[in-house]
Write the structure tokens for this entry.
Amino acid sequence: MSIIVIVLFIAVIICCIIIARFMYLKNEETELKIMATIAGTVICVVIAFVIIWLASMVPIGAATTEDSLESTIEIVALNDKTTLEGAMYGGVFITRGYIDTIPTYTYYYKTENGSIKFGQISAESTSIYYILDDSLPRIETYKVVERGYTLYHFPTKFERTTEVYYKLYIPPNAISTEIILDLE
């Protein structure tokens, strides 16, 4: 692919030189012909470079996405809660900022050496599943990875993480489903 881009670039430059050369044939002054040729060539080279540079940013073919399991941790305790997050800016007289609530799951988990640590994940990017076998409660972290090729001077392979999500496995009946209608 890179050979095609180089050949295209050279062909555009040659065409631009020919066009710039014939634009000022009516003018008899040789110095103006040379200046017009140089100016036309420079302008065409810049335009060709920009076109090829923009074309090289486009992925070649369709990029593929794949969900990959990054980690699995065994949880000991779990709680759902809302976390406050925000910031304040300004001075004494003018103050601005924001306060936002973020639903989260906070948990304690076992590490490989047997210690217990605290963790927190976003509830909005978490799906809950009931454990159907004899496995322990756990959180699986997944990353959605996009892979493909782009033509940036030479064909280049790219890989980027587009999303992170969690699967939370809990015992059956761990979620209470109480519905209370009260018109007090």
Residues 30-56 form the longest helix (27 residues). The chain has two domains: 2-56, 64-170. The helical segments are 2-23, 30-56.
